[in-house]
Amino acid sequence: LVLNKMDLADLTHKARILERLEQEGLKNILFTNCVKDENVKKVIPLITDLVSSSQRYHRAENVEYCIMVIGVPNVGKSSLINSMRRLHLKKGKASRVGGEPGITKAVLTRIQVSERPLMYLLDTPGVLAPRIESVEAGMKLALCGAIRDHLVGEGIMADYLLYTLNKQQQFSYVQRYGLGEPSDDIESVLKRVALKLGRTHKVKVLTGTGDVNVIAPDYPAAAYELLRTFRKGELGLVLLD
């Protein structure tokens, strides 16, 4: 199990995470960061050991490995493949990446990531469980970019994000957007974000004497900016679970 994007998570509870996963029967867990290629070099040796110890592997005549990468959308599956190629083959990108779900739309042809041992990886579209267990679980997946923003609504997601940041006492957004103090009013926070970034638009207001154009904050743009900043790790290290 590869837990990617470790640079964005609060890993002060790493021991508890490992304990919980082991209770669920999961072993051989790696934390990786494909931006800086942290721990990525450990992936191929671990795969080699696990496959070589399998009885099914010894039925094969060809000494090569073909591995499928499977996971939730937007966790960095394509980035992991590119990172492995960069480290082991000194090659450039072979799989398209992006900070939103749905970049990989089909199982691609196999991509070589190592010469010794000879190993190929198959990139796959992100997969989710057929049913999400709760609204809260769905919101967490949405904040991580596993679900397309427009399916949930940027405003709703921004409101849940603000609640999460305040609950974990992550108040870096206060200074970043020039707020006087922490707030649980998403409208006032988004208004400040919009004004800080110059995200405004003209709105026509009907009055008794005619139509008047006024400048109003662009709340959807501000919500998108807040979400994008969070996903880049610029609002602090956060662990949603």
Automatic annotation (TrEMBL):
<keyword id="KW-0547">Nucleotide-binding</keyword>
<protein>
    <submittedName>
        <fullName>Mitochondrial ribosome associated GTPase 1</fullName>
    </submittedName>
</protein>
<dbReference type="GO" id="GO:0005525">
    <property type="term" value="F:GTP binding"/>
</dbReference>
<feature type="domain" description="G">
    <location>
        <begin position="67"/>
        <end position="145"/>
    </location>
</feature>
<keyword id="KW-0342">GTP-binding</keyword>
<dbReference type="GO" id="GO:0003924">
    <property type="term" value="F:GTPase activity"/>
</dbReference>
<dbReference type="InterPro" id="IPR006073">
    <property type="entry name" value="GTP-bd"/>
</dbReference>
<dbReference type="InterPro" id="IPR027417">
    <property type="entry name" value="P-loop_NTPase"/>
</dbReference>
<dbReference type="InterPro" id="IPR023179">
    <property type="entry name" value="GTP-bd_ortho_bundle_sf"/>
</dbReference>
<dbReference type="GO" id="GO:0005739">
    <property type="term" value="C:mitochondrion"/>
</dbReference>
<dbReference type="Pfam" id="PF01926">
    <property type="entry name" value="MMR_HSR1"/>
</dbReference>
<dbReference type="GO" id="GO:0032543">
    <property type="term" value="P:mitochondrial translation"/>
</dbReference>
